[in-house]
Amino acid sequence: MSKHHALDRFGMSGNPAIRSAAFQERVSANEERMSLEGAVNKTGILLFLTVMAAAVSWNYQGPLMTLVSGIGMFVAFVSTIMTFGFYFFFVGWLVEPRPYNAPRTAPVYAIGMGFFIGLISQQAESLYPGIVIQAVSLTFFVAASLLLAYKTGVIKPNQNFLLMVFAATMGIFLTYLANLIYFAVTGNNFFVLTDNGTMGIVISLFVIGIAALNLVLDFDIIEQADEQGAPKYMEWFGAMALIATLIWLYIEILRLLMKLRSR
Amino acid sequence: MSYLTIVTGLLGLISAFVFFYFLKFKASTKQTQRKDRIRWSKYIPYKNETLVGDTEKESDDAKFKDN
């Protein structure tokens, strides 16, 4: 029994209006429910949009495309905040999550990030030929391995797992934010983030590990939303969460491979 | 194209297929019938907006009555 008395009692009341079953019926009467198949299809659509935008950005390099990629990344960031909200330690939700925005924000996010990853991938490929195929393959390999581990119950995410992954993700986010500010002021990056020595590689592996564990949380969100008969828009929400983590994982694997190749 | 790139490319294709194929299936009961699962509905308000508002209001009343 958790400390949250009201939450523990949620759905257990004798009042038929607030009993879980009645609640589910009211939801189902109003709208279509999500399915795992639908979430998979949406993930496929978002991945297709990301690849298409990346292909455009890859083939038309130049100052205009750099600007488009920058705008794309900014728009993707705004879409993320509009959908997943923004939580900060000790402060709480600065922006509340709005999953019902996902059908509109998810394609925008996919296209915006597609332009950005197309640009960085092309630059990485011109420096180290073959690196993009390796990074994409390793991303899917990690994702498929964790999916199997999740589906078979080898990895069982619980509240402690969530807290650990969330704290580590926030730590990485704050480090990257501090690095961005440092870069804007001095024109340099934090040494440990770009270092191709042992320390830099260990940090990259740690970040990849955390990004991979975020995938497990995404699988759990999709699975549970499907079990509980969540509204149809949760298909887009789950797919967006999955694509966001896959893109993050891809970027981190690409960075690691670049560090390894530059040694 | 190097041998390593071809091998990793094939690995990627197989992994992508496995990923999209198994994503459609429900997780095992070992995963879904645990008592310590994360309750995502606590963090993500994925129910109908008006209904969630009504329910929270009413469940607070219920808590008050219980106490």
Summed up:
The complex is a heterodimer of chains A (263) and B (67). Chain A has a two-stranded antiparallel ribbon with strand order 1-2.
Strand order of the largest sheet of chain A: 1-2
Shape of chain B: elongated
Estimate the strand proportion of chain B: under 5%
SS class of chain A? mainly alpha
Q: Secondary-structure blueprint of this entry?
A:
The complex is a heterodimer of chains A (263) and B (67).
Chain A: H1 5-9, H2 20-30, H3 36-59, H4 63-84, E1 86-88, E2 92-95, H5 102-127, H6 131-151, H7 159-186, H8 191-194, H9 198-227, H10 233-261
Antiparallel strand pairs in A: 1-2
Helix pairs in contact in A: 3-5, 3-10, 4-5, 5-10, 6-9, 6-10, 7-9, 9-10
Chain B: H1 3-23, H2 29-32, H3 49-66
Structure description:
The complex is a heterodimer of chains A (263) and B (67). Chain A has one domain (30-261). By secondary structure, chain A is an all-alpha fold. In chain A, α3 (36-59) crosses α5 (102-127), α4 runs antiparallel to α5 and α7 packs across α9 (198-227). Chain A has helices spanning 5-9, 20-30, 36-59, 63-84, 102-127, 131-151, 159-186, 191-194, 198-227, 233-261, and strands spanning 86-88, 92-95. In chain A, strands 1-2 form a two-stranded antiparallel sheet. With 67 residues, chain B is mainly α. Residues 48-67 of chain B have low confidence and may be disordered. At the A-B interface, α1, α2, α3, α6 and α7 of A face α1, α2 and α3 of B.
Give the tags.
heterodimer, A: 263 residues, mainly alpha, 10 helices, 2 strands, globular, disordered N terminus, B: 67 residues, 3 helices, elongated
